Amino acid sequence: MDKTTRRTFISQAAGVGSALGAAPWILNGGAEQATRQDSIVKSKYAQLDKILGQPLLKRALFKSPVIIETLELLKYENSYLCRVRSSDGAEGISVAHYDMALFHPIFNRKLRRFFLGKDARDLDLILERILFYGLNFRLEGMALGIPLATIEFAILDMLGHISGKSVGHLVGEIHHPEVPVYVATEFRHLALEEHFDKIQEAVAQYDTNALKIKVGYMHYGTTDIHYPGLPGKSEKLVPMVRAHYGDDMFLYADSNGYYDVEGAIKMGQLLEEYEYSYFEEPVRFDRFEDIKVVADALAIPIANGEQDHSFTNFRWLLAQDGIDIVQPDNYYFGGMIRSIKVARMAEAMGKTFIPHMSGGGLGFIYNSHIVSVCPNAGKHHEFKGFRTHVPFECPTAPLKISNGKMKVPAGPGFGVQIDPDFVKKHTVVGP
Ligand SMILES: [Mg+2]
Question: Alpha carbon of 70 to those of 67, 93, 162: distances in Å?
Fold first, then answer.
């Protein structure tokens, strides 16, 4: 159901509700309609669960078992890498999110042992089972997601080198060899003029025509945090940015869950007036009933999901038609396979995938690969610059933004070669 139809349906339903007292036959009609709606939702859940149960890794690419013999976390200063080796001597390597500094005991004590001796061809199953091994689901969030994603990236890199294929080809087809990007900006703590200047500085660095701005103050429940001059700032910034860049700029807005339902609807209407293309985290990320209320009330597409760590919110919001754009984070959500499953669920419901991107390391490379395999990837994707502490080479892509797009590396694995001398500086982190 598209947004216009959904709103029509809601207004019809509201009409039925207001007439309930006067005409019992309408009550029966309302009940029938509710039953019909229930069965639609039920069949959507069945469709989504089927997608969740379908493995992504193309097992047929590997004729014989790929037994994981060693799985190591390596550290040098603030840098963490993950290295996996098979019993046949194949190797894969990944760069961890910088918050691995907080979570390395989980890598070593809660996850590592489960992978050892397993056949990497069973990766989908391993990723499902590991949640229940040692009650790991209790750690869900960045604590589980970051170490799990780091391990998964290394395994996919190894499988890519064994098969000579890029990670995208291991788990799907390449739909987008180039990823169009938007410039992600922050600066919400600054006063209006300074905020506006910083946005312009950021946009001027890249050859792109898409930009995301922050609206609202901070996160949900922080109305007590007032910066001087900020109340009412977003209401001025939204039209200012549109007036400055004109109609050719794609604009997006993110409130990081700042608003309550009423405030979000008001801000959403303003964004609609100035033709912003989506509204991200309009209300608190885990109040999914509220997200749906906001989505139903507005025509602007609603995006959510960067804080999610389980499939539960996505499943509910997609089945209930309460979200338009799903945004799992490749690291926080536990890797490519899990994130692509969210994208596939969204695709089945006619919705869009625009993953959140954690900054640092090789996050922008890993993200480009998940976007490349999803046919329902959005028009532009998060981009926070090429700055990284990792020296590497990428023979198949220049890694620059030209004409608003970044080419996705095409070589085996993630298509990058991390400088071996840099890897050698790292030592194994013990449990
Ligand atoms: Mg966001």
Answer: 9, 12, 16
Does 227 lie in the same domain as 147? no
Distance 176 CA to ligand 1 centre (A): 23
- By the 10 Å C-beta count (0-12 exposed, 13-18 middle, 19+ buried), 55 is classed as middle
The confidence score (pLDDT) of residue 333 equals 97
Residue 219, helix vs strand vs coil: coil
72 CA from centroid of ligand 1 (Å): 32
- Please indicate, yes or no, if residue 41 is contained in any of the structural domains: no
Closest CA to 407 of 418, 396, 391: 396
Ligand 1 center from residue 397 Cα (angstroms): 27
Q: What is the DSSP string of 159-207?
A: HHHHHT-BHHHHHS--S-SEEEEEEE---TTS-HHHHHHHHHHHHHTSS
In a domain, 231, yes or no: yes
Judgement on whether residues 118 and 191 belong to the same structural domain of the protein: no
**Cβ contact 92:188 at 8 Å:** no
Assign residue 72 the CATH number of its domain. 3.30.390.10
| Region of poorest pLDDT, from 19-33, 72-86, 343-357, 374-388 | 19-33
Domain extent for 160: 59-164+420-428
How many Å lie between the centroid of ligand 1 and the Cα of residue 178? 22
* Residue 45: pLDDT over 70: yes
The three-point CA angle 87-88-93 to 5° equals 80
pLDDT in tens, 157-207: 999 999 999 999 999 999 999 999 999 999 988 889 999 999 999 999 988
CA of residue 323 to ligand 1 center, whole Å: 15
Residue with the bigger pLDDT between 35 and 213: it is 213
pLDDT, tens digit (0-9, with 9 covering 90-100), for 218-236: 776 666 555 555 678 999 9
